[in-house]
Inverse folding.
């Protein structure tokens, strides 16, 4: 069934691949961007453009209401980094803020507009310390300290709670492993739970109309994350890659 899908973070590394998948499946896609200059990029990817900032509650509410989406997909991050510990910590704080405040604003806009389903990006390395692999039911690291606390308790936990602890829509959280591939920081698999960026986009695409509310680990098999739930309920394939270019 063709749906109207609102994608926040549409020009990001996952968002661009996701737009292509949604377009090719026949869905109507509205991509959110903060600047009018990025509108042409979204239109080239087959989406309409919505100009809004995740921290502007009023503009965001209007943008989502105008799109009237069936599904909202949240792929917003702020991952810009630089040299030096202080710069890196500031980047972690910015990313935590968009997960905390941006997600709350998106959830509010989705609820007001009657969105039926909300799919959000999270991370798969926020679990409390234990011997891996990790199941979705394992606890997150609520006792984290330092920079990890900024990320986990200041960003990941508020994001997931906002999406899951409500009854206005179906909420799905995708806990991604460490991304690699085009547009990412690594061309080859790295980390304890590697994940190709196009396979990550495919998981979000499937979650638009598959799977029950809840959390899904998304990573390649054999690593730190148990992915049986994503394989079974979403029908996800970690080997998925986009064919060709547009």
């Amino acid at each position: 069934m063709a749906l109207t899908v609102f994608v926040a973070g549409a020009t990001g590394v996952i968002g661009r691949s996701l737009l292509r998948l949604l377009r090719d499946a026949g869905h109507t896609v509205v991509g959110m961007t903060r600047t009018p200059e990025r509108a042409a990029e979204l239109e080239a990817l087959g989406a309409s453009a919505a100009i809004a900032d995740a921290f502007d509650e009023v503009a965001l509410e209007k943008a989502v209401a105008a799109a009237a989406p069936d599904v909202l997909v949240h792929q917003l991050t702020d991952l810009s980094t630089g040299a030096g510990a202080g710069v890196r910590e500031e980047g972690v704080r910015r990313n935590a803020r968009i997960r905390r405040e941006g997600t709350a604003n998106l959830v509010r806009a989705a609820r007001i507009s009657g969105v039926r389903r909300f799919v959000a990006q999270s991370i798969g390395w926020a679990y409390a310390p234990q011997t891996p692999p990790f199941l979705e039911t394992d606890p997150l690291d609520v006792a984290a300290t330092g920079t990890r606390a900024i990320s986990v308790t200041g960003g990941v936990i508020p994001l997931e709670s906002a999406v899951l602890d409500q009854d206005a829509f179906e909420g799905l959280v995708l806990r991604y492993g460490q991304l690699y591939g085009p547009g990412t920081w690594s061309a080859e698999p790295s980390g304890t739970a590697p994940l190709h960026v196009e396979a990550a986009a495919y998981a979000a695409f499937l979650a638009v109309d598959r799977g029950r509310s809840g959390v899904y680990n998304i990573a390649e098999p054999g690593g730190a994350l148990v992915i049986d739930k994503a394989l079974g309920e979403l029908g996800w394939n970690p080997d998925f890659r986009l064919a060709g270019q547009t």
Notes: The beta strands are 4-8, 28-33, 48-51, 71-74, 117-123, 170-176, 178-180, 194-196, 214-218. The mean pLDDT is 95.
